[in-house]
Queue: 3 jobs
Job 1
Amino acid sequence: MNESQLIHYLDSLPKQEPAWVKQMQHDAQKDHVPIMDIQGIALLQQLIRLYQPQKLLEIGTAIGYSALRMIEAKNNLEIVTIERDQAMYQRAMDHIVDQGRQAQIEVILGDALELAVETKTKGKFDMIFIDAAKGQYRRFFELYEGTLSKNGVIITDNVLFHGYVANPDGAPKRLRNMVKKIDAYNRWLLQHQGYDTVILPIGDGIAISIKRENDYIS
Ligand code: SAH
Ligand code: MG
């Protein structure tokens, strides 16, 4: 059995998903919005159930799918999420209002590369979910890790990017630079002394980085 058969099997298992989830998945696929896939979001939800964060920062809202699904996993979770695209922002706001979650999810419209100072004023986050421009992952990590609470967790999506990160020569030319940047990020992250990181080949590749207890002494 190869890997795609395994994923196909897992995806095909029946699930009890509410109609709004199916609708958002359908809309995202139709409009080519790169939301987390079935296995990826299932892992993210399970991490939330295990870790029980009070406050979560998301970089890359898109249509609000992952934010709403994370709240599905923890009903009183508070989320601050950043999106730079006006149309995506609007769609996310509409979905959040539809689900009655506007008191819990604050969407900031703007470029996350420019919002770190403003975001700091919103308090500490127990979990940070990085899912925006793939070539900028290290910058997002370094800009926002200062907002992470003690023992916090940083989760990064798409770190294997369609398998291309493991096989850059197989990537379309236009993606090669970005794929190399993700590879550099993964290498940097795994050697980071402040975090213990594991990368799982689930969804599109998910890195889970747990902040070390004490600031390490070299
Ligand atoms: N987390 C979403 C998918 C996010 S797709 C989900 O799984 O449901 C990535 C999003 O990040 C896109 O909507 C894109 O507009 C946004 N983005 C990319 N670079 C960004 C940046 N520098 N600042 C804010 N948003 C950014
Ligand atoms: Mg993603």
Note: The chain has eight helices and seven strands.
Job 2
Amino acid sequence: MPRILDGKTVRDQIKAELKPRVAAFRESTGRAPGLVVVLVGNDPASEVYVASKTATADELGIYNETLTYPATTTTDELLAVIARLNERPEVDGILVQLPLPAHVDSQRVLLAVLPEKDVDGFHPCNIGAMVTGRPAPKPCTPAGIIELLKYYQIPVEGKHAVVVGRSDIVGKPMAALLLQQNATVTICHSKTRNLAEICRTADILVGAIGRPAFLKAEHIQPGAVVIDVGVNRVDDYGLAETIFPPERLANFAKKGYLLTGDVNPADIEKLASAYTPVPGGVGPLTIAMLMFNTVGAAERRIAQA
Ligand code: NDP
């Protein structure tokens, strides 16, 4: 039986380590670390994510505000919002909830956030700092995966890690962080030839594609550690039947959909030595790392003041 790498346990440890840091920050500065979330429009998924983020901030004693703007807000109006938040001394972290409405220039808005307040770790300055090993906020999902690998003492040094997916928020930073841990890293994407052959050489296989159960037995080396970043909603019962065992299909009738990762769960069970389940693996880590970045940003800003 493969080992299950449970993200909730790691999330709880990250949060437990943050609590005394928040208390110490409050003690030395007389205020809590501060996070402001900027939410534009009424995307229901974004509203759910923001509610989870603010609930976690509350739980940890991190001061937080959510600024909500209508979907008609312009790029210039958002740039003015960011400029004001950059100026506010008690705001340590600014998070612009993505996606922004299509008419907004997301790149310009994200670039306007001061790098030291960019708790998503998306600013090119912070990406540069990450790649060159300097202290800075790192993109939350891949940084959480590194914490998970450390927690479960999964050896990374000298291992061949294959990252499937090259997005700016998951695949590329994941590859950079694994490289920093001395893995030998291969990045694959939609134009990669012989994907299965390359994946089968992975000691650590990271699926970050966004396609339900796309990576299968032919992609998994027996004994590999499989990190499944994908979160895919399967609402076609026919497709669900090809992915899930009968006991999980029972839930389909209740919810009308099931969540699956990018790697076929039955094939993981058969072949992997350890894996992150979906849900409950990588997902819980992202918000915990956002809080980690917020507290780190607050500490660095005070240290540099
Ligand atoms: P993107 O859509 O931005 O990137 C997907 C990547 O997968 C691209 O680089 C793309 O290649 C590659 N890809 C697509 N199809 C194939 C294929 N057939 N073969 C090989 N590579 C392929 O997705 P994200 O990185 O934002 O997210 C990936 C997944 O992770 C999604 O399911 C998302 O929901 C999930 N996610 C989960 C998080 C969590 O907290 N658990 C957080 C963030 C994301 P190319 O560049 O060539 O187009």
Note: Residues 140-283 form a domain with the Rossmann fold fold (CATH 3.40.50.720).
Job 3
Amino acid sequence: MEGLDIENKQQPNSLNLRPGLEGVPVAQSSICDIDGEKGDLKYRGYSISELAEKSSFLETTFLLIWGELPTSKQLKEFESQIQMHRRLSFRVRDMMKCFPESGHPMDALQSSAASLGLFYSRRAIDDPKYIYDAVVRLIAKIPTMVAAFQLIRKGQDPIQPRDDLPYSANFLYMLTEKEPDPIAARVLDRCLILHAEHSLNASTFSARVTASTLTDPYAVIASAVGTLAGPLHGGANEDVIKMLEKIKSPDRASSFLDQAIKNKEKIMGFGHREYKVKDPRANLLQSFAEELFARFGKDEMYDVAQAVEQAATPKLGPKGIYPNVDFYSGLVYRKLGIPKDLFTPIFAISRVSGWLAHWREQLSANRIYRPTQIYTGKHNRTWEPLEERSSITKN
Ligand code: ACO
């Protein structure tokens, strides 16, 4: 008997295959606008650089989810609700204590986020109060979960949030048990603004697909976290630092790139489906890294990163491949004293805003996602009794 033939290319079908849905519009959205040729990114019509300079992460979150900047009363109310809901139930903390400490923090976060659906099981997705409460809970609790797992895996008890500290400062405090330097906290807050939304990337699409089934928002966020974890998406920031550590010194950057390109390996932190120029967020993150280096001392890996960018420009630039958001973010987080495997969870803390904005938008004009496929398998096969079958090739 022949092996399973999944390569059967005969296509009686006239459907146009679009792997990765590249260039296929599947939703109308008013949340985020990307100009990949110019390297321009806007949330709800506001430029990302202006938001990073003038806004806070919670204010930007409000803008993304409800479409307008909050009034000062709305912002105060939102901030105080978030502050009130930052704590985790002892049951969630106990559950997290049972996770293996060697597990990846993104897996811990996905499981913990999904568990919220058990605690808040009422599903009323057409009730504005339910939506507001779910937004508040998720924005408030996700950072606490990330920080809790970090302490738990070191054998410590998670510490409680501090009510006197703003969002990003409190996260750093819960992570390090020290009140952070205000510049460090502000840089982190600005990083969260930059990562909060980016139209229909893989994890946001995942969130919208899950939302389209009308399931609860905790399942929506858990599915998006799982999607963000992959190395071709949010996981790349961790791999960038591993790559820079492997290159070790600036003079090795060019030969490393040549070898990688020859072996058809991807350079982590480079390339983007949308941008054909340097990602505007990479420029801003690079400036944040420099701000931190000026205050707290330089990271020698920054020289390596710059050498990689410089060497890559003539080699990959002609193909429209430039640094993306993940290339410099790891250097910022490293300077903030954050371990490598927490880079992607921090991305998730921020992207929850965008996912929730898309959750709301999906519900406002919902149609369940159900794409089609082009069948490439066999047809009309004859059943063979078990004793007459020869071995098959597994793939
Ligand atoms: N290094 C080297 N070559 C690259 C890179 C890269 N980082 N990215 C793309 N290319 C090349 C591919 O080899 C391919 O070349 P070919 O046409 O000669 O075969 C061509 O560019 C197109 O590449 P695709 O992978 O088809 O482009 P796509 O739009 O599907 O991929 C992606 C975008 C996944 C981001 C890709 O650039 C990549 O894998 N980058 C590295 C991982 C990374 O940094 N991911 C983070 C992205 S940002 C984010 O998700 C938050």
Note: Residues 32-230+341-364 form a domain with the Citrate Synthase; domain 1 fold (CATH 1.10.580.10).
